[in-house]
Amino acid sequence: MSIRFIKMHGAGNDYVYVDLFRERVDDPVALAVAISDRHYGVGADGLILIGPSERADVRMRIFNADGSEAEMCGNGIRCVAKYARERGLACTDDVRIETKAGIKSVRVIWGGGRIVGARVDMGIPALERAAIPMRGPADSRCVNELLSVGGHEYRVTCLSMGNPHCVIFADDLCAVPLETVGPLLERHEAFPERTNVHFVQVMGEREVRVRTWERGSGITLACGTGASAVCVAGSLTGRTARSILAHLPGGDLDIEWAEDGHVYMTGPAREVFTGEWPGAS
């Protein structure tokens, strides 16, 4: 039985989306691994399922390219909001989306008669180790602390944006061996549920460059929850203001850690193509 899908991306962070209002997916883990393969599949950072919710307009489930399920995806949720609003699954420009990290509010942005982006209320960052999760005293924070990996020491700031993040500030992003150190940090014993990893070069008080190793997907062109974590980490360590422009390999994201404690992220949402996946289940 074939499955109809749509390929979308937010700042180059690309996913295959399946509408469960119309399609059936019996084994999302197997489908995520197969369809995400960039040589033998459609090619994507993962699979996102859009389905019914009893508490919001729609529900999204995120499966990384390795089949592991993620709690939240900042770039993916903008594309879900675009899809839901344009296909009539949501009736207003303020789309409510259920995720494993809770219900998120997303305001879509129109341009030229179509939705081109969205602003997401990413919620309040969790800073205590127990909530990240990260090993150590449960109610303590990890801000600019030394962490040893691969024979090197890095100063890390860790937090959760619904999923775990480890942020490291560097003088030169081009000198970071992300392919090597990324997987080591992702699976470091300090993180019982693994972690996303972000190296950051500060360009100014309100401007940064970011390279990302995503848990379960590897190097990606952008990470929305990660850019949000970078904004929080920059403020906590005194390196940036609470509002920044984050330059990622796939595009730019505007991030604000507002006075109400919530992080707000604004960025693009683009449709690439539609298709059918044959013989999947």
Concise overview:
The protein is α+β, with helices and mostly antiparallel strands. It has helices at residues 28-36, 74-86, 178-186, 224-236, and strands at residues 3-10, 13-19, 46-51, 58-64, 69-70, 94-99, 102-111, 114-123, 142-149, 152-160, 164-169, 196-204, 207-214, 218-220, 243-248, 251-257, 263-268, 270-277. The chain has two domains: 3-122 and 268-277, Diaminopimelate Epimerase, Chain A, domain 1; 129-261, Roll (Diaminopimelate Epimerase, Chain A, domain 1), CATH 3.10.310.10.
Characterization of the model:
It is a single chain. By secondary structure, the chain is an alpha+beta fold. A hairpin with a 3-residue loop joins strand 10 (152-160) and strand 11 (164-169). The longest helix is centred in the N-terminal third of the chain and has 13 residues, at 74-86. The protein has an 18-stranded mixed β-sheet that branches. The protein has 4 helices and 18 strands. It starts with a strand and ends with a strand. The chain has 2 domains: 3-122 and 268-277, Diaminopimelate Epimerase, Chain A, domain 1 (Roll); 129-261, Diaminopimelate Epimerase, Chain A, domain 1.
